[in-house]
Amino acid sequence: MFELLFKYPIAVYSKGEFVLLGSIGVLGGGGQILMTASYRFADASIIAAFDYVAMIWAAALGYALFAEAPSPSILLGAAIVAGAGVFVLWREHSARRIRRAAAAAMGGEAPRAA
Q1: Which domain holds residue 72?
Q2: Are residues 36 and 47 in the same domain?
Q3: From CA 53, how far away is CA 49, in angstroms rounded?
Q4: Residues 58-95: pLDDT tens digits?
């Protein structure tokens, strides 16, 4: 077990690198907390659409920083996931419009999503 611990050299980080690592942790954690809190204020189908933008950023930053282009299978998978998300968003929008029209026809208010 100990041979696995000492097989690779231990990296020594400078103070600046520790600050960068700490910043990444704090900003990433804060972003996750804010994303989770946003589900209180809007429908999940709407917020999930913003989460798909992360795929675009990941591909762009991977290419810009590491000259790493996504493979065709990754692009196909991302297109399927994003397409499914857009479909759910469209379906929820259509269903909400139908519920509002039905409620207006009955003289009441449309039920709000929880």
Answers
A1: 43-114
A2: no
A3: 7
A4: 889 999 999 999 999 988 988 898 888 788 878 888 88
